[in-house]
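Let us work through a complete example step by step.
Step 1: write down the sequence.
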Amino acid sequence: MRILITNDDGINAPGLQVLEEIAAEIAGPSGEVWIVAPAFEQSGVAHCISYTHPTMIAELGPRRFAAEGSPADCVMAGLHDVLADGRPDLVLSGVNRGNNAAENAMYSGTIGGAMEAALHGLPAIALSQFYGPGNVRAEDPFEAARVHGAATVRRLLDHGIWDSEADYRLFYNVNFPALPGAEVRGLRVGRQGFRRETSFGVEPHVSPSGRRFLWVKGGRQDIPTGPGTDAQDNLDGYISVVPMRADLTAHDALDAVTAALGDAVE
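Step 2: predict the structure and record it as tokens.
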């Protein structure tokens, strides 16, 4: 199996090394793991692409490339340049430092990389490691992902739905709970949650030169999001799996909006 991996924390991020281990186990001794990751951290860029300027790419070692762009840029670089001789069988993005559950998914460059692969018709999985009291001070905060990552990916490959003929094909968002590997309670499939009464915001600071700057800051990550949702499953000690599509249509509202608006033009 030929696997392309990327992330949004950057080519030197510890989570990428965890993902290399996961990918190597999935690929097997006769497989290939190719890395095309951002040269610098790209957290929060979502599905951004560098449409108005070029992306410099450099080969750092065998099957290892750094690109000055977003995770989606890296996937395109991998597909159309680095691996132009043959597409990968699978694209993995992560393992992100911090969760990409609930509303975080909308900002996630990790998910953006997987989404770009799905738009190119490839099977793709985004993987993230929740940080919390159970692991933030641990010697290996990625232990849950390291211990359970390969088995989770293999389970998705063997039993997940991979609708390769769909216009917007499925990809998967996986989050590992903030626990040691031995304390993970299992795996649950659910929907994307929403943390109420918290959100991203900005915090103003004044520099020594008197200039005013705004730092983007996140809200609390331990807010329950309700049964059957990703962040809640993580807080309850489970690996969460959410099937996703790049199609942003609110299908549940189509009939009601059609009935309300009709086809009249005023």
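Step 3: interpret the result. The longest strand covers residues 90-97.
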